Amino acid sequence: MLTITPAFILAASAFLRAAANPVGPTSTSKGGSGSSTDGQKFVLITVPPFPTDTSLKVIPDASHPFVAPGPGDKRGPCPGLNTLANHGYLPHNGIASFEQLIEGVEEGYNMEHDLASALSALAILGRGNAFINQVSIGGVSELVPPLPGKIDGKTAGGLAKHGRFEGDVSQTRHDIGEGDYQNFQDDLYDQFLTYVGRFGGDSPTTGNASVVTLPVLQEYKYHRFLSEQASDPNLEFSIARMIISYDEAAFVLNFFPNGTDNVIDTTILGSFFRNQTFPYNWHRRGDPGNFTFIQDAAAEILGAHPLVPGTNKNGVWTPDAPLNTGSTFTDVHLNIMQNLASSLNDVTGDLKTNVETLLAALAKPFGVDPLKVRPQGTPGQ
Ligand code: HEM
Ligand SMILES: *[C@@H]1O[C@H](CO)[C@@H](O)[C@H](O)[C@H]1NC(C)=O
Ligand SMILES: *[C@@H]1O[C@H](CO)[C@@H](O)[C@H](O)[C@H]1NC(C)=O
Ligand SMILES: *[C@@H]1O[C@H](CO)[C@@H](O)[C@H](O)[C@H]1NC(C)=O
Ligand SMILES: *[C@@H]1O[C@H](CO)[C@@H](O)[C@H](O)[C@H]1NC(C)=O
């Protein structure tokens, strides 16, 4: 479990502006499916049912071959989602709904339903459009206009937009201001491979020191932090970003291994990170990977070199004031809410229905009451 203890100081384009509505926002929709605002058609969001098949199986199946993205297709900072889109488990153009994200990560990786729902809710709320139920897995798309009335800024951002979800100290993307923070980077991946070479496990097929193990992520993530702490004068490593970035390291250990033997070697690692394709004859894990697994794995990775959340202010490392909500989980949830737009509290009608569905899905794994801990960030940030 992730807990705060003295030893483990974790405290441990064009918008789809309605031609008929050139003067700007109209009144908020009054409810009822099919309502329109700002020329956008409302789409009701519902949390899909739990999947019936969570067994070990070969991915992709015959109907999901790799197709390289075309010039207009969106890809972004998440190797997991990029791979799904390349295989048509998500729409190939990289624009997905809440339900498509959940069903995609469940089918492709056996990500557990509530974890998938929380991540997908953050994606739509923070970087998509909750009125039309769409988000770009990459940058801004004309298919995902900003919310009616632009109540959360002039664009919907997409998952590649920095802040709220995309953040610093990634494994294979630079920090914003330090280089390309959206796409796969060879120089970082080469560093990752040196950590596999130094700390990795042996394999009879791919060779010695070619298996990605817990010590590899423990040492590589710490290296990435120290490296950005030294080089990025604007490093932001708040509690939510810190934990989510360690969760993403935990994803590597929990969702990328071949499900038959739980081994992730450098061939598999390269297939997902570099080529963004499922490895040949790869099997998804044989049981749903849930929030507990991920937080436990993240705690193990962080536990080797515990860090405190903080920020570089003009290059000077400054620990954040503790949030002290009672647990790391509730701290992370609060910190996520500190970045989601406060204007989401003021919506009415159809949009409110969707926003509340998403806030509840996001809060669920953290065990927080979504009616009590509300979005309080600056719109458009
Ligand atoms: C709906 C579910 C998901 C959403 C919305 C999502 C979104 C994201 C976003 C926005 C990032 C960028 C964060 C950063 O700046 O580092 C990211 C990173 C990452 N995601 Fe996902 N993700 C999802 C599911 C998955 C799954 C199922 C996997 C693995 C199979 C995965 C693997 C990763 C990894 C390894 C990274 C870190 C990349 C790096 O640090 O270079 N994600 N994800
Ligand atoms: C791999 O490591 C094992 C045990 O450490 C050793 O016996 C073997 O020779 C090594 N194989 C190669 C190809 O280096
Ligand atoms: C990635 O794709 C390239 C080009 O198709 C191929 O040569 C390489 O073996 C692939 N690497 C992995 C790790 O799948
Ligand atoms: C996964 O394991 C199975 C069974 O051992 C093996 O046949 C398959 O080649 C492995 N796949 C990968 C990508 O390593
Ligand atoms: C995750 O799965 C494990 C093993 O089945 C279980 O003990 C745990 O309670 C689950 N956690 C969640 C949040 O579902």
SSE topology:
Blueprint: E1 36-37, E2 40-41, H1 79-86, E3 95-96, H2 98-109, H3 113-127, E4 135-136, H4 186-199, E5 201-203, E6 207-211, H5 214-231, E7 236-237, H6 239-255, H7 266-275, H8 291-303, E8 310-313, E9 316-319, H9 328-337, H10 349-363
Antiparallel strand pairs: 1-2, 3-4, 5-6, 7-8, 8-9
Helix pairs in contact: 2-3, 3-10, 4-5, 5-8, 6-8, 6-9
The structure holds protoporphyrin IX containing FE and 2-acetamido-2-deoxy-beta-D-glucopyranose (NAG) (4 copies).
Residues 290-292 line the site of one 2-acetamido-2-deoxy-beta-D-glucopyranose (NAG).
Polypeptide structure, described:
This is Cloroperoxidase. Keywords: Heme, Iron, Metal-binding, Oxidoreductase, Peroxidase, Signal. Residues 62-299 form the Heme haloperoxidase family profile domain. Belongs to the chloroperoxidase family. It comes from Sistotremastrum niveocremeum HHB9708. This protein is mainly alpha-helical and 381 residues long. It has one domain: Chloroperoxidase (Orthogonal Bundle). It contains ten helices and nine strands. It has helices at 79-86, 98-109, 113-127, 186-199, 214-231, 239-255, 266-275, 291-303, 328-337, 349-363, and strands spanning 36-37, 40-41, 95-96, 135-136, 201-203, 207-211, 236-237, 310-313, 316-319. It has a three-stranded antiparallel beta sheet with strand order 7-8-9. A two-stranded antiparallel sheet has the order 1-2. The protein has a two-stranded antiparallel ribbon with strand order 3-4. Strand 8 and strand 9 (316-319) form a beta hairpin. Helix 6 packs across helix 9 (328-337). The two termini are 31 Å apart. The model is unreliable at 3-32 (pLDDT under 50). The structure holds protoporphyrin IX containing FE (HEM) and 2-acetamido-2-deoxy-beta-D-glucopyranose (4 copies). The site of protoporphyrin IX containing FE has 27 residues, from helix 1, helix 2, helix 3 and helix 6.
